Amino acid sequence: MKIAAHLDADVMAKVAAETAARVLRETVQRRGRAAFVAATGASQFNFLKHLVAAPGIAWERTTMFHLDEYIGMSADHPASFRRYLRERLTSKAPIGTVQFIAGDAPDLTAELDRLNRTIAATPIDAAFVGIGENGHLAFNDPPADFTTEIPYIIVRLDEACRRQQFGEGWFKTLDDVPREAISMTVRQIMKATHVICTVPEKRKARAIKACLEGEVGPMFPASILRTHPSCHLFLDKESASLLKPATLAG
User: Fold this and answer.
1) Could you tell me the residue ranges of all domains in the chain?
2) Which of 64, 90, 137, 157 is the most exposed place for a label (fewest CB within 10 A)?
3) pLDDT digit string (tens) for 29-67?
4) Integer Cα distance of 161 and 44 in angstroms
5) Would you say 96 and 61 are in contact if contact means Cβ atoms under 8 Å apart?
6) pLDDT tens, position by position, 159-172
């Protein structure tokens, strides 16, 4: 894992986006196409802003997979991750193929089958992710499933995860936050050739410390990124504030 900490959150996001853009450009040049995974949430605001502004990306030759989505939520709900990605990514970049998760599909089993068949046939070149306040990776809350090879599964959101979604302002009350979601699994995320992880803000500092300085294991789901051969973790001054100097030095 390569760790980079920047004083300013926007500078951090810009550097992360430049790394992501380089991966996409080089992959398209080498293979003719690129496939990537896009995350949502407050941590991705500035990253996506800079990514869609990056020059030279042949977006029409890319495929985007959606990381996670609430079950039972319409695509137009203010907290929908499909809406989030439409507003901040797919309406601004002419992505060739977009694979959204239909969390409100009338037949969730069929929707999972579709997603799992599609991604199984598509090598993922890059996963753009964040880390939750509880250390989750996608919606894989602790203790996360580190063993399943199924790409997408239904998960139950823990209380800390739901409080984070409420705290970020996506819902009017905590009771409004759904209790279940479809999430890309840990092992599927780890199959990406490159992982670009962007984590700003003080509220993430404890999770960052636990995931980087604690044991690698299901109780700290994002800790598994330490074992990825090409993971780039971008922190700002606040999210890195509890780390030992030796951790930042690699």
Assistant:
1) 2-248
2) 90
3) 999 999 999 999 888 999 999 999 999 999 999 999 999
4) 17
5) yes
6) 988 988 898 888 89
Tokens of 103: 């969390």
What is the CATH number assigned to the segment(s) 2-248? 3.40.50.1360
Strands 231-236 and 152-156, how do they pair? unpaired
CA distance 240 to 4: 9
Q: Helices (DSSP H) in 143-232: which residue ranges?
A: 159-167, 186-190, 205-213
Q: For tokens 């439409």, what's the residue?
A: 86
> What is the DSSP secondary-structure string of 156-174?
EPPHHHHHHHHHTTSSSSG
For residues 92-118, b (16+ Cβ closer than 10 Å) or e, as one string?
ebebeebbbbbbbbeebeebbebbbee
| Positive or negative: CA dihedral 179, 180, 183, 187 | positive
